[in-house]
Amino acid sequence: MWRSRLERHFLLKSLRAIWKLLRGLWHVAVGMWWIYAHFPQLSAEQREMRVQAWSLQLLALWGIHLKVLGQPVLNGPALLVANHISWLDISVIHAARHCRFVAKSDIRDWPLIGMLATGASTLFIERNSRKDALRMVKDMADAMKEGDVVAVFPEGTTSDGRDLLPFHANLIQSAIQADAPVQPMSLKFIDAASGEPSYAPCYIGDDTLVGSMWRTLTASRITAVVHFGEPQTANGRDRRAWVNDLRQDIIRLRDAQ
């Protein structure tokens, strides 16, 4: 009887996860249709509102609650800097505050996700090209000068959130060139029932995207916590000193949750 009950619980959990997955895929398809059919006629502000609403709906469909601490910048120019944990991070941040992300160029060619990223005005960079990094710094600075809010993950890759990887300083130069403030922001996933950190959405090491998604969909209810710090200016710091200070700020924001 004990084994039968356990098997039944596992089956029900798997069925719920499959239902969430199917609803999520349909939501992605609807998002792609909106980008193709409606985005060309929308203003930049209307597009931002649609992307934020879409991201909130995706989190709700997958049973992920969003908790926002602090106040995101109201307007650009600004650069958001965050730690990086999961494939969910971009949707979580978009749900909290729309921004233009900097992402590796191969994401542009991913099925479904590439079109969504392009529709959300993502800036794409060749990660291993120093020349392209210089181009991206200029593109980011130009975007901020035009009033955009741009976001980067200075770790360059994902970690499990227990400790932050070293931050790369190159893209912080864009804020210096644009004379724009930088707002540190921490990300954290917690188990809604226990309040303990949840590592289900992690996407590191040998994790596959499918495996991480399935682990997330079968996990207990998750809360995504976004904690915005105070915007700050360079105040004479070069990009390396500034990015190291930002890393410490993000650690403090994460631990204050």
Order of helices and strands: HHEEHEHEHEHEHEH
Report the β-strand fraction as a percent range: 15-25%
Number of helices: 8
Radius of gyration: 19 Å
Low-pLDDT runs: none
- Helix coverage percent of residues? 40-55%
| Class computed from helices, strands and strand pairing | alpha/beta
* Distance from first to last alpha carbon: 42 Å
Count of β-strands: 7
Shape: globular
How would you explain this protein's 3D organization?
The structure is a single chain. The chain has 257 residues and is an alpha/beta fold. It is built from eight helices and seven strands; from the N terminus they run H-H-E-E-H-E-H-E-H-E-H-E-H-E-H. Strands 1-7-6-2-5-3-4 form a seven-stranded mixed sheet, sandwiched between helices.
Set down the secondary structure blueprint.
Layout: H1 2-37, H2 44-61, E1 64-69, E2 78-82, H3 89-96, E3 100-104, H4 113-119, E4 123-125, H5 130-145, E5 149-152, H6 173-178, E6 182-191, H7 209-218, E7 222-228, H8 239-255
Parallel strand pairs: 1-7, 2-5, 2-6, 3-4, 3-5
Antiparallel strand pairs: 6-7
Helix pairs in contact: 1-2, 1-4, 2-3
Question: Tags for this entry?
Answer:
257 residues, alpha/beta, seven-stranded mixed sheet
Explain briefly what this protein structure is.
The protein is built from eight helices and seven strands. With 257 residues, it is of the alpha/beta class.
